[in-house]
Give the backbone structure.
Amino acid sequence: MDVSHILDGLNDAQRDAVSGEEQAALILAGAGSGKTRVLVHRIAWLMQVEGVSPYGILAVTFTNKAAGEMRERVQAMLQTPVSGMWIGTFHGIAHRLLRMHSKELGLPDAFQVLDSDDQFRMIKRLLKAMNIDDARWPPRQVQWFINAQKDEGRRAKHLAAGADPFEQKMIEIYTEYEVICQRSGLVDFAELLLRAHELIRDNVAVLEHYQQRFKHVLVDEFQDTNTIQYAWLRLLTQEAENLYVVGDDDQSIYGWRGAKIENIHRFQKDYPKHKLVKLEQNYRSTSTILNAANAVITHNDSRMGKELWTDGEDGELISLYAGFNDQDEARFVVDRIQHWAEQGNLRAEAAILYRSNAQSRLFEEYLMMSGIPYRVYGGQRFFERLEIKNALAYMQLATHLENDAAFERIVNTPTRGIGTRTVELVRERARAQGISLWQAANALCEGVELSGRAVNALSGFIKLMRDISGNLKSAVLFEQVNQVISQSGLIEFHKKEKGEKGEARVENLEELVNAARQFVYGAAGEEELSELDSFLAHAALEAGDTQGDKFEDCVQLMTLHSAKGLEFPLVFMTGVEEGLFPSQRSVDGIGRLEEERRLCYVGITRAMQQLYITYAESRRLHGQESYPMPSRFIREIPAELIQEVRLNARVSRPVTAEQPIGFRDESDAGFRVGQRVMHTKFGEGMVLNHEGRGAQARVQVNFDAVGSKWLMLAYAKLETM
Ligand code: ATP
Ligand code: MG
């Protein structure tokens, strides 16, 4: 068989990794050295050369996006569609197992996934119900505690309460939380993993089945696995020692969420026959960028130590820009991107990376003003928006009436005259009898506790849900979604809201129907789910992927965390300031600071050709003005790799937070923001912004025909209208 093409485009070490005879392997290598590429080629190799059936392969990647890409690349290499192969995230795969084995697990068939926002709300309600002071036991901390226990594989019953009253209370809450989740058929993210582990730990037959089925288990970004994920992998592969992992200890960035770098050491002990491959050549970045990354990461003490080199070009120096303030920083970045696009480059090749989600807003504003399409990953994701969650809750409750979280969310949304007192009574009844809110509501409508009006309102809701639930049985998915939305009354509800917010919400609801229309049932091979369940799970697990047009050329905005594994020709690492990056909290503990530095290493190594690092000399954060210092990470980059960007046209009237765009005074040349102007070539437009003086004066105009442009006043010959 001609297998050469599978090894094409690989260096010697990569070939060795791809074609090794050992079943277990650890590919330990720095950023951009081709680890993910090796994993893809390995899968193709197994199928084509070793004749492994796609059913025999389980591949775990970090995001759904990565999983999709992996499948496509394998198919392209084999020139045939591949079905039956399990490829997905830990959570996605765990969810699938839970669906298939809900009986063994004692879960209701129609169990639903509780995302972290819903989990938080539920904990808040629980604290209230238990009469617990949420100042002493803040719901966030409770959530953190519960998830951390689950990540370590511990249920409430495993926890021995010591003398510490704080901990005792936590365990008490955890116990109660488990009861409610079980009764409502709700499974949070950590629970998905925990159950998947318990499933194969406690059911020998199930374990043997999957051990037999999955001849090869492969994992990308292995350094970010947590205890329970490792335990699960270990069970699956301990007999055949068939675990193939790739990772980079320098890119471990989820310690704060329970990831264990030690899993790399544990792997080496647990799989004594493994093959170890180190890849040392970086194919992604210019040597300037790579040298900067290498220099920063050497400041960490706890490293396994790897070399990384490139025979690529030096490339451009890293550009450092000090913004006068955060608005100036955003303006600068957007200006550079505009320049990049004007040179004929794709906008999608440019990424703006930031430490915290809140930073995206300013960039979004400036991009919007300049008419540049963009896409935000993470943050306020489509499926996490209020109106979308409400609509989804209708579907969840309709498919599973015992879902307490969904019940709470929509019982009086849109408002239908069910008062807080009534809801309180429903809760009390549920709690007293250990039944679901739905059952309690039904019982109350039969009884005498409620006033006539309250009974009317509540039974109206019950009838509505019965109707919706009855209608679900027919129709195709997007019609089901459409029907639920229109029956729910949510559209009218949001139409009544004033202004753009309401309109946007209505649009989003319509977009949800679109999302359902575009939803590819069975794409991940999850035939065991109904189409609607599969869609709801997709909404809970995936989030974000229906935002923006997939095919539009958009600038990419995301946190440094979600940039892991990706690469872009042009990267802006922004807000590189003490207190923000590294974050204030991390500065206090040494381990945390090292994790933050690894995040910086991840950020730098996303860049292929050009890297900009920016910071602001003053920034408005959480409603307060601060004057941060440039981050220590900037100093850790050798000075000769950096050039400072100084604009020859200094900002003469920097935008300050108190002066939102559109309320600024006149420029030297007599143009006002908002003024209509005429240009001989571009036609009519509106002035958006201006800066500089005299010969350097520039204005930004949004032209009706061609969009926004910065123009030098000395040449532009603008006429006022
Ligand atoms: P990260 O640590 O960031 O996840 P990685 O080690 O997974 O990085 P890849 O994303 O697989 O690295 O590869 C980085 C880039 O280098 C990709 O564009 C990939 O196609 C390219 N590349 C990898 N190996 C080779 C090779 N042998 N020849 C040419 N290009 C390569
Ligand atoms: Mg990778």
